[in-house]
Amino acid sequence: SSPSAGSTFVAPATIAINATAADSDGTVSKVDFYQGTTLIGTDTTAPFSFNWTSVGAGGYSLTAKATDDRGGTTTSGAVAVTVNNPVPTVSISSPTPGTIFNAPATVAISASASVGVGTISKVDFYQGTTLIGTATAAPFNFNWNNVGAGSYNLTATATASTGTVATSTAVAVTVNALPTVSIVAPTASSVFTAPGTIGMTASAA
């Protein structure tokens, strides 16, 4: 009766299996629960149930076999369920959204990532759709160097050892261009007679 066919779980899963069984001319003495041909549990009293624990990722076919007080048996139809590996969680801890840098900037990017089963094998750092760096061990950090003026959207993608992948929420940052300034006049090495008046002209943008 449960789980229903097509149910999905996240590893390591606990799957509560429930079966209904009756015997018209006697009693049900036990219900055996199977995964494929493997016996995984037995219940001798109604309601017939079994908690299958610590189930790893994979596809499974569950059946229940009822045995009555005279030794007769009947096996239920199979119920297919799937246990998936957990998806990692990942977020960018720095910089914070809206941070402003000055060009040419060094943007220190840090991400936190974890997963319920397995380990984090790598964290990739992206600007838009462009991969800009990778960290393969915690703490997951990357320094993005010589960043020119512009607006950027940073994300981090975590890959678990089980193969599942997750992407963080984007963090928007801005790199401003610093002003440029130079002295146009007087020119370098100009000579004046004291007491002199030196006219100075600068170019700035």
Protein architecture, described:
- It is built from no helices and 19 strands.
- The chain has 205 residues and is mainly beta.
- The strands form five sheets. Strands 1, 3, 4, 6, 7 and 8 form a six-stranded mixed beta sheet that branches. Strands 10, 12, 13, 15, 16 and 17 form a six-stranded mixed beta sheet that branches.
- It is rod-shaped, with a radius of gyration of 33 Å.
- The model has no long low-confidence stretch (mean pLDDT 96).
Order of helices and strands: EEEEEEEEEEEEEEEEEEE
Mean of residue pLDDT values: 96
By DSSP (H or I, 4+ residues per run), the number of helices equals 0
The share of residues in helices is under 10%
Strand content: over 45%
Summarize the entry for a quick read.
0% of the residues lie in helices and 60% in strands. By secondary structure, the chain is an all-beta fold.
Key words describing this protein structure:
mainly beta, about 200 residues, 6-stranded mixed sheet, about 60% strand, rod-shaped
What is the topology?
Blueprint: E1 8-10, E2 13-19, E3 28-35, E4 38-43, E5 48-55, E6 58-68, E7 73-75, E8 79-84, E9 89-94, E10 100-102, E11 105-114, E12 120-127, E13 130-135, E14 140-147, E15 150-160, E16 165-167, E17 171-176, E18 181-185, E19 201-204
Parallel strand pairs: 1-8, 10-17
Antiparallel strand pairs: 2-5, 3-4, 3-6, 6-7, 6-8, 9-11, 11-14, 12-13, 12-15, 15-16, 15-17, 18-19
